Amino acid sequence: MLFPCPFCGSRDETEFTYVGEPKARPEPAETVSNEAWAEYLYVNANPKGVAREIWLHLTCMDMFAMTRDTVTNAVLSSETPGRTR
Ligand SMILES: [Zn+2]
């Protein structure tokens, strides 16, 4: 299977690693409860179907968002939100 790196183009899936679901990082630790940190770090929606995920291309070491159907593994898009290169 080929994954689309926004910087390098289509590459074999073995060149990529899953980073996680895009989510907002909580405020600094002094103001966040242990439960809120644990939820941020370990609880994922893990949806069945279309999902937006963060991936790392190990060849260029850049992260990007990929929208993928987790049932069919079809890649719908890849993008670098908030970044130009
Ligand atoms: Zn790349």
Name the helicity range. 10-25%
CATH architecture heading: 2-Layer Sandwich
| Strand order, largest beta sheet | 3-4-5-6
CATH superfamily: Folate-binding superfamily
The arrangement of helices and strands along the chain is EEEHEEE
- Report the structural category: mainly beta
Give the distinct bound molecules.
zinc ion
Strand content: 35-45%
Q: What low-confidence regions span 5 or more consecutive residues with pLDDT below 50? A: none
Radius of gyration: 15 Å
Label the overall shape: globular
Major sheet, described briefly? 4 strands, antiparallel
Distance between the termini: 25 Å
Output the CATH class name. Alpha Beta
Number of helices in the DSSP assignment? 1
CATH fold description? Folate-binding fold
**Based on DSSP secondary structure assignment, what is the total number of beta strands?**
6
Short précis:
With 85 residues, this protein is mostly beta strands.
Structural features, described:
By secondary structure, the protein is mostly beta strands. It has one domain: Folate-binding superfamily (Folate-binding fold, 2-Layer Sandwich), CATH 3.30.2270.10. It is 11% helix and 40% strand. It is built from 1 helix and 6 strands. The strands form 2 sheets. A 4-stranded antiparallel β-sheet has the order 3-4-5-6, with no helix packed on it. A hairpin with a 3-residue loop joins strand 1 and strand 2. The model has no long low-confidence stretch (mean pLDDT 90). Bound molecules: zinc ion. The site of zinc ion has 7 residues, from loops.
